[in-house]
Amino acid sequence: ERAHSMASTNLNPHVATLGTAGGPRWWTGENAGKRAGISTAVVVGESVYLVDAGTGVGNQLMKAGFTPANLRGIFLTHLHSDHTIDLASLAIFGMFTLPAGKAPISIIGPGDRGALPPASPRAATAPQPVFAQNPTPGTASMFEHLMQAYATDLNDRVIDALRPSPLDHFIASDIEIPAGTGYHPNAKPTPADFAPFEIYRDELVTVTATLVKHPPIVRPSPSASTLPKAR
Ligand SMILES: [Zn+2]
After folding, report:
1. Which pTM was predicted?
2. Residue 9: other Cβ atoms inside 10 A
3. Rounded distance from Cα 231 to ligand 1 centre (Å)
4. Are 166 and 95 in contact (CB under 8 A)?
5. Which tens digit of pLDDT belongs to each residue from 81-139?
6. Structural domain includes residue 231
7. Whole-angstrom Cα distance, residue 212 to residue 219?
8. Residue 126 lies inside a defined structural domain of this protein
9. Ion ligand 1: residue ranges with CB closer than 5 A
């Protein structure tokens, strides 16, 4: 009907690349210091759906005209540091810009890898894993540990300054790979007949994920967001 159609038209969905420097490239090379780490904003009306949170994501979001108050969801394509390093910054500093009563912001990304990758054949001796007790954490565990690392700071704010906790404002969860696909993180990371599946939906967007090749990691990558068709 008319009201809906006008609202849909005015949403002006578009993509804003906030940073495109993979790995440590923002740090070195001829453009050192001029680039930001990987992050992309899918903008629908006033709502921002962030894909990845690389170096400088908060500054870049601000320069693009948004604050964390605009965020509806944060989607992590995979857990490599160049895609996630400023997630803690976004949550801890970002929460101070959030209006009271705002619904929690979803952080959605890959689950626990489930197995370490096989050691490189070039290894003369077996490499020892980092944090052998939890060597392949997924998104929820990663976010929990990031916040745990800042507990001293966060508790000063929560207990003394009576500020909110980022855990009240950001809810991290793992993408669960559908059962029965034959998927295995090492033996079969990308089953041939694997189809994109829904990982998030609200009144503006539907987000699906699929598995793509990016050895040695498993990457259930948010891959598409589809707007309701404007009528
Ligand atoms: Zn990567």
Report:
1. 0.88
2. 9
3. 38
4. yes
5. 999 999 999 999 998 889 988 999 999 999 999 999 999 889 999 999 999 999 999 99
6. no
7. 6
8. no
9. 80
